[in-house]
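ASSEMBLY PREDICTION REQUEST
Request ID: AP-0331
Submitted by: J.K., bench scientist
Number of chains: three
Total residues: 850
Priority: normal
Notes: Please return the full assembly, not individual chains.
Input sequences:
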Amino acid sequence: MILYVISVGLSVTMGLMGFINLAHGVFAMAGGFLLSTAMARWGMPFPLSLALAFLAVAIGSIVLERLLYSRLYASGELSQVLFSIGLILVSMASARLIFGDQAAPIFLPEYLRGQLHVLGRDFPTYRVFIILFGSIIISLLWFGVERTRWGAMVRAAVDNRAMAQSVGINTRLLFMLTFALGSGLAGLGGALGADILAVQWSYPFEHLVYFLIVVAVGGLGTLRGPFIAALLIGVADTACKYWTPEFGAFLVYAATIAVLLWRPQGLFGVRA
Amino acid sequence: MPAALQTEKLCKSFGALTVAQNIDFRLEPGARHALIGPNGAGKTTFVNMLTGALAPSSGRILLNGEEVTKKKQAARVKLGLGRTFQITSLFPRLPVLDNVALAIAERDGLAIRMWRSASSHREILEEGRSILDALGLADDAALPAHDLPYGKQRLVEIAIALSLKPRVLLLDEPAAGVPTDESKKILANLERLPADIAILIIEHDMDLVFRFARTITVLVQGEVLLEGPPETIAADRRVRDVYLGEGAHA
Amino acid sequence: MSGYSVDSRLRWTEVIPFVVALAGFFLLPEYLALGARILIFILFALSLDLILGYAGIVTLGHSAFFGLGAYTAGILGAKAGIADPFAQLLLAGAAAAALGLATGAIILRTRALTLLMLTLAITAILLEVANKMSSLTGGADGLSGVQVNAILGLFRFDLFGRTAFLYCLAALLIGWWAVRRIIHSPFGAMLTGIRENRARMHAVGAPVYWRLVLIYTISATMAGVAGALLTQVNQFVGLNVLGLEPSGDLLVMLILGGVGRLYGAFVGPVVYLIAQDYLAKQYPEYWYFGIGALLITVVLFAPGGILGLIDKCLQLFKQKSSAKASAR
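STATUS: Completed
Returned structure:
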C-alpha cells in the first residue's frame, strides 16, 4: 500500500512527462524526514505533520522542476537517468549530513498505536490506518483523474502532448502541478510508511529498484497499474521471504523479468 | 508478368476501427503510380503494411510475385522494396554521405565488417557520391543532414531509398512541407528516376501527382474508390466531391 | 568518431594515454595499485561505451558481466585450482559472453524504461545469487585466496603491483585496439546509425536486433575480462563488483569523460578514481554530494563530458582566430 502511494506519483510523472525520474525515492525520503522532524522537534500533531509532508514536498518539487527538470524534457533518456542519479546522490549525501546515520524516529500518536480487534483477528492499528488512508487517497485520485476536468486534461496530455497543447491546454502548468502532486504523494507515502520502511539517508537508493519495478510492471501513466503491481509485489515479497528465505528477493526480480518480457508496456500500460 | 507489388484483399483493423478494407492493388513494373485520398483515408497505414512496419489483419501482399505478407521490413528491403518517410527520417547528425553510405553497406552485406575502417571502403564512398550527384546534392556530402534546407533533406530521403537499388519504391509524401519552388526540384528528380523501378507515391500536392503519375488510385476511408489514368480521375464526380470537401486543388 | 567520412588513421594524440601510463609506471611506483584499478575501469568503460555511446543502449546492468567475470576468475583460482592467468581470463570472458548473449537476446527486443529495468533486475539477481551461494562465492565476506600463477611462468604478481600494472596495461592495449577497430569499421558506422535513427536502419534493411545482440555480447565479454583482471590483481573478489553501484559508478565515469568518443572512457575513470582516492578518504560524506552535484552540472551544462568541453573550447578558439583572420 505504501509502495503504491509512493509509486503512483512516479507512474504519472513518468507516463505524463516521459521523464525517467529515478530520484522519486528522494521525495518519499523527504516526506519521511519532514514528518519525523515536525513531530519530534516542532511538536506538531500527526495529521498536521502528514499534511506538511505532502505540501512541503510538493512545493519543493515545483522548485526543482522549474529550475532543473524542465531543462531536460527534450533531452534523451540517458541524460534524464544520469540527472536523477545525480539528484539521488546529492540528496542522500545531504540527508546523511543533516540527519546522520540513524533512521528517523517516528512516534505514532496514541490513538494509532496498538492493535485493533476485527473479525476475530488482531491487526496492528497503524497498518489498518494506512490501508484505510491509502484507499481514500486512491479513491480521491481515481475520482480526480477519471471524473474531473483536470483529470481529463492530464489523460489527454499523457496520450498526446502536442495535441493537448494545440487544443489550448497549458501543458507546462499542467506538468508542473502534476509533478507536484506526484512528488507530494511520494512525500506523503514516505511519511506514512516511515514506521514500516525506515527513513534514513540511503532510502532512495535502497528502495529505488522496488519503485521502478512497481512502475514498470504496473505500466506507465496509469493509476490501476501501480496499484496492482504494488499489491502483487508486496504479497510476493512477503510470501517469498516467508516460505523460501534462501531465495529472498530473487523471485521478485525473476517475476519482474518474466512480466516485462511478456508485456513490455507493463500490465496496464499503453503500448507507445 | 507478375506485378511489381500486389495486394489481395488487404484488411487492417484496430479493434473496432477499420482502416483498410479489402484493398486489391497492383503496381506494375516500371509504373508511375500515385495514391491519393483525403486525410485519414488510410494511405500511410497502407504503405506501412506494404513495407512490413505494420502487420495486416488479413489479406496477402506479394512482391514481384513472391508472398511477403509475413516477412519483416529488413527482409522486404532485401527483396527490393524501398521507401521514404512522410516525416523526414534521416540520420540527422551524420554527414549526408554517411546517410547514403549506410544504406549501400547494408545492401551489399558489408555492414557487419569490423576489421577494415569504413572510410577505406572506396566502392561505397564512390557509389554514394554518384547517387548524391545525380540528385544535385554533391556539394552537401560532408554536411550533417539536419543542416540542409528541408527540400534538400527530402532529396536525401530519396537518395537513401535509391541506394538500396530497389525494384519497387514507395514515396510517402515526398514534397510534404516543402516550399513550392523546391518541390519543383523534387518533381524533376522523380522524373529522372530509372524507368525500370516501379514507383508509388502518396501525395497531396495535386500538381505533382498529375504531372508525375500515369495511373492514380483514390483511397477513401480504407477502400479503393477508383483507379485509372489521370484524366479519368480528374473528370470523376465522386473524386471531386471527396476532394472539394477538403478544399484541395484538383 | 565513426562513419564513412572520418579519417581513421592513428593520430599521435591517441598514443598519449599509453605514454602517460608508462610514465606513471616509472615515475609513481607507490600508486601502481590505483593505477591498475584505473586501467581496469578504463577497459570496463570502453566496453560500456560500445553499447552506450555507439549503439545507444542505456543500461544500468553492465556490472552483471563485470561481476560474473570477476567471480569466475575468483572461483577458478580459489576453488577449482585453475590458476593460469590466461585460462582464467578466457573462461571469465566466455562466461560473460554467454550471459551477454543470453540476456541480450531476451532483453534487446525491448526499449527505454523496460530495457533499463530488465538490466537492473538481471544485475540484482546476480547479486542475490552471489550473496546466497556463499559456499561458492564467499557470500558477504567475499572470496579471498585467489591463486594466480605467474604470467607465462615468468612474471609473478609482486607485492608492489608492478606486474599487475603492466599486465593490465597490456590487456587495455589489446582491448583498446579492438574497440577502435570496431568503431571505425562499417559495423561501427552501422551502430551509430542505429543510435541516430533506429527506424531508418530497419527501413534500409538492417537486422537491427541481431546486430545489437552481437555488440552486446562483445561488450559483455570485455566487461567480463575487466572483472577477471580485478580479481587477479587483488587476488580477492567481493560483492561490490555486482549490483547497481558499479554500474552507476561506471556510468558516471563515462559521462564525465564523454560518451561515444572512445577517449572519454580513458579520461572519465582517471579523473573519477583519482578524485575518489583522494577526496573520498578525506571527506567521505561530501564525496557523494560532490559527485551528485557534478553529475547534475555535467548533464545540464556539459553533456559531452570533459572531452566535449575541450572540443567546444577548441572550436571557439578556431572561430576566434578565423574571425580575426577574415577581419583583416
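REVIEWER COMMENTS: The mean pLDDT of chain C is 83.
SIGN-OFF: pending second reviewer
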